[in-house]
Write a structure and sequence with these properties.
It contains five helices and two strands; from the N terminus they run αααααββ. By secondary structure, the protein is mostly helical. α1 crosses α5, α2 packs across α4 and α3 packs across α4. The longest helix is centred in the first third of the chain and has 19 residues. The chain starts with a helix and ends in a 19-residue tail after the last strand.
């Protein structure tokens, strides 16, 4: 049992370090990807192009050393205790004009994600 918990702690430490390497925007994309949103929906929510979302997704997969989307989801589930200690999990981006962080994710969405228009740029 001690070996298993030591291995799990070591794995969690590695995942935490990989997560800390993500930029705030990559964290925003990650949180939406693992919640099941389509690239078009993520692009709409973040006001970026779908191609940019695809680029961020690829960077997240590479930086997190994930071989598949299900593997990435499992990794983030293991990160739950760690991400509380890491600022900006939900993808806060500093608002430099005000000198503060502005969260781009609200606790309760103001729209139904499935009714979002799927726009392209």
């Amino acid at each position: 049992m001690d070996r298993r918990s030591a291995r799990e702690r070591a794995q969690a430490a590695v995942l935490g370090e990989l997560y800390r390497r993500l930029t705030p925007r990559e964290r925003q994309v990650l949180s939406r990807v693992i919640s099941g949103l389509l690239n078009k929906q993520i692009a709409y929510e973040l006001d970026i192009s779908e191609g940019t979302v695809k680029g961020y997704r690829a960077q997240v997969m590479e930086k997190m050393e994930a071989t598949s989307l299900p593997a990435l989801v499992r990794m983030t589930q293991q990160l739950e205790p760690i991400k509380r200690d890491v600022p900006k999990w939900e993808g806060e981006i500093p608002d430099e004009s005000q000198g503060m962080a502005v969260s781009s994710v609200s606790a309760e969405p103001s729209h139904d994600r499935e009714s979002l228009p799927l726009r392209t740029r």
